[in-house]
Amino acid sequence: MRQRLQLKLSIGRGAALLIGLLGLTACQPPDPPKISPTESPKIEETGRLILNNATLEQANPSGQPLWKIQVKKATYTQDQKIARLENIKGNIYQEGKVVLQVSADRGEVYKEGQEILLKDNIVAVDPRNKAIINAPELRWLPKEGILISPKGIKGSHLQLEAKARQGRYDTRQEKLELQGQVVATAKESRVVLQTERLYWEIPQQVISTDQKVAFDRYINKTIIDRLTAIGGRWERKNNQVILQENLEYRSLEPPLQISGSQAIWNYQNRTLTSDRPTEIFQYQDQITITGNRVVVELGNRIAYLKDGVKGINQKTGAQLYSQILTWKMSEKIVEAEGNIIYEQQEPKFNLTGDKAIGTLEDNNIVVTSSSPDRVVTEIYPR
Q1: pLDDT on residue 61
Q2: What residue intervals traverse the membrane (predicted)?
Q3: At residue 36, does pLDDT exceed 60?
């Protein structure tokens, strides 16, 4: 206790205030000040207090630690009431538990310990979920439990890496928000997301956005799938992406373009599922097929459509209507059932029945029925 009183008297009131705020006192359990016994506090003529190899800490009114850091050097300027730190390493707490382990080359403490600024070579690790945050500058607000990065940020967790121009990490929700030129890359699945705003719920492994978003999936360096939409939710545990509005999906192999209002994409199985009206366009043969409920298995090159299906040959104008349709893309064969209507322009005629099978690109469709007299042909002369 005598050492603390002597220190207060010798360094002046302003420096003593800093020591009280930062917890550098031998009377405050459980962590006494960690000042190297061979290096005493130094007072310069300008009134600056310099501490070498010190431990600084801040507690809440209940006595629980808010943060505790070790520094190689701490410099306090009395008139500015700012502590400048060098070679920082320490812990950030929440309700008495460590929520971030941080290190940085430089830093500053403001507002009586209620705000900490870290600079240069920053690494922040959340030990609860193993997420890692890197940034050139981070501002920590202990009361709010928020870590803010205004000058670029990178987050990493379980083979996923996300970068943006700025971001913030909420330690209470374990949620990372990124804004500005956001790029998220999943290394194991080779999926890349691009958007302007992203929310990453790290424990749940869920990423969501309400902005325009693009997903690319690669094989080697070639994009084989590209999806765009307004809003989406990436559930990494399920290997799927839920896309909200204005969906556009372009596949390199098979050559397809799919559009609709909502869909679920399983990127591992390369399947797209939707219970909303969806259009599939095979642009090489100019074939368009639309259904109200759709499952597209791109790996197997097959599509299932039902609840009202319409197929069109864009080159010839031939049209096929049915309740259910299976499109085998490799064989270019369609198999349809239920309320069949086939319309052809050259020559112009209609066929109706129960079932249909054939190829739309060359107008080779056979319509059949369970009873022969139910097949109706209508021919329209010129």
Answers
A1: 83
A2: none
A3: no
pLDDT number for residue 44: 53
Chain-centre distance for alpha carbon 137: 21
67 Cβ contact list (under 8 Å, min separation 6): 57, 58, 90, 91, 92, 93, 113, 116, 140, 142
Residue 350 and residue 359: Cα distance in Å, rounded? 16
Name the strand (E) or helix (H) holding 279. Answer: strand 278-282
Q: What is the reported pLDDT for 112?
A: 75
**What fold characterizes domain 1-127?**
lipopolysaccharide transport protein A fold (2.60.450)
Provide the residue type at 162 as one letter. A
Token representation of residue 331: 């064989």
Residues 76 and 101 sit within 8 Å (Cβ to Cβ):
no
Give the Å distances, CA to CA, from 117 to 25, 75, 109, 110, 273.
23, 14, 6, 8, 47
- Residue keyed to tokens 């009431």: 81
Cα separation, 238 vs 255, in Å, equals 26
Mean pLDDT of 284-290: 94
Distance (Å, whole) CA 264 – CA 86: 49
| Residue extents of the structural domains in the chain | 1-127
Interior angle at CA 174, CA 166 and CA 67, nearest 5: 85
For residue 220, the 8-state DSSP code is T
Confidence grade of residue 80 (pLDDT, cut at 50, 70, 90): low
Contact assessment for residue 259 and residue 251, using Cβ atoms and an 8 Å cutoff: no
Report d(CA 29, CA 308) in Å as an integer: 74
pTM of model > 0.85: no
Q: Take residue 178 and report the two structure tokens written for it.
A: 């990124």
pLDDT of residue 376: 59
